Amino acid sequence: MPTTLQVIYPARDDAVFDYDYYLDNHLPLLQEHWGELIEGIEVTKGLASGPDIPAAYLLIATVTFPDLDSLDEAMGESGGQLIDDVPNFTNVRPQILIGELIHG
């Protein structure tokens, strides 16, 4: 069963997020370390949480793995390097959701 890792960056008043760095540096780093283990990556930039409501999230990245074992392998091998890169593009501590893909 496919397993997803969602990395969710909540919006807040003092949030800084360098989208260019994220796309040009962080995603290639993820691909370098996890490319053979993943099925795909989707990245969504938050625009709004409804009409005239600011976005609750700056960005949500969804990384899909073929199974939980692949996710565990990825996190064990180089998860720390990816986490260490986060301060290079944001001052927001991301939230993590590991899930089972049940539709998609």
Tell me the layout of helices and strands.
Elements: E1 3-10, H1 19-34, E2 40-45, E3 48-50, E4 53-54, E5 57-65, H2 68-85, E6 95-100
Antiparallel strand pairs: 1-5, 1-6, 2-5, 3-4
Please characterize this protein's 3D structure:
The strands form two sheets. A four-stranded antiparallel beta sheet has the order 2-5-1-6. Strands 3-4 form a two-stranded antiparallel sheet. 33% of the residues lie in helices and 33% in strands. The longest helix is centred in the C-terminal third of the chain and has 18 residues, at 68-85. Helix 1 (19-34) packs across helix 2. The protein has 104 residues and is an alpha+beta fold. The protein has two helices and six strands; from the N terminus they run βαββββαβ. Strand 3 (48-50) and strand 4 (53-54) form a beta hairpin. The protein is globular and about 40 Å long.
Ends apart, CA distance between termini? 12 Å
User: H/E series, N to C?
Assistant: EHEEEEHE
Helix content: 25-40%
Helix/strand/pairing category: alpha+beta
| Overall morphology | globular
Order of strands side by side in the largest beta sheet? Answer: 2-5-1-6
Query: How would you state the average pLDDT, rounded?
Result: 95
Strand content: 25-35%
Question: Quick recap of the structure?
Answer:
This protein has 104 residues and is of the alpha+beta class.
Any key phrases for this structure?
two-stranded antiparallel ribbon; 2 helices; alpha+beta; 33% helix; 6 strands
